[in-house]
Amino acid sequence: MLADGLVLAGRRDVVTGSWGAAEHHLSAAARLAPERSVRERLTLEAVECQLLGDAVADPADLAVRLRDQPSSPRRSYVLAGLDLVTGRFVESDALLRDAWLRCGDRGDPAVAARVVAQLATLCLLCAHGQEADWADLALRLAPGPGCRRDAAPGAAISGREDRGGRLGSRRLRRGPLHRWRLA
Fold first, then answer.
1. pTM as predicted
2. What is the rounded distance in angstroms from the CA atom of residue 168 to the CA atom of residue 68?
3. Among candidates 51, 53, 52, 45, which has minimal Cα distance to 28?
4. How far apart are CA 35 and CA 24, in angstroms?
5. Could you tell me where the beta strands, DSSP code E, fall in the chain?
């Protein structure tokens, strides 16, 4: 099916960091997808590619369209990114923390890694002082090289970039309110 081929092409583009091509392929696949849940997921992935490629033309319009989708970690993460590019830091922080809590024990580790990497960046922008902790967590959760690459900017800015597996002094432990907590 054509939609499946477009999804594969889009995901290959994501791995190589070709955000414009990935957005194009995933948006086209979303338009062709027969199931609503698949269309919604692919639309979120396409908007995420726009964010990562710094090519969001109208963040307010995108946010309005995405708010109608069912709540999910990726939806909260993408909406947070749209708020971040418009300077709505308080709203972005609330959505990122919501995404983090929604990731739970069975959440997508790639989304979880991106959420905490974005939290690290947001904390740095707002001078919260927690950016290094979130950066450490982003690098620890990243399930593969592509995700580690996505987490790297927040980690590098905070001074916690991966240096041969040494990611700082804090350890991760299971927490009662969300998947991990910093100890």
1. 0.70
2. 40
3. 45
4. 19
5. 172-173, 181-182
* Structure confidence by residue, pLDDT tens digits, 30-41: 999 999 999 999
In 3D, which of 85, 166, 164, 162 has the Cα closest to residue 118?
A: 85
DSSP conformation class of 172:
E
172 torsion bin: left (phi>0), alpha (psi -120 to 50), beta (else): beta
Round to the nearest angstrom and report the end-to-end CA distance of the chain: 48
| 37/43 Cα distance (integer angstroms) | 10
Kindly report, residue by residue over 52-70, the tens digit of the pLDDT.
999 898 999 999 999 999 9
DSSP H/E element including 37: helix 36-52
For residues 40 and 79, give the distance between their C-alpha atoms in angstroms, rounded to a whole number.
Answer: 13
CA distance 178 to 180: 6
> Whole-angstrom Cα distance, residue 144 to residue 103?
18
Total residues found in the chain within this entry: 183
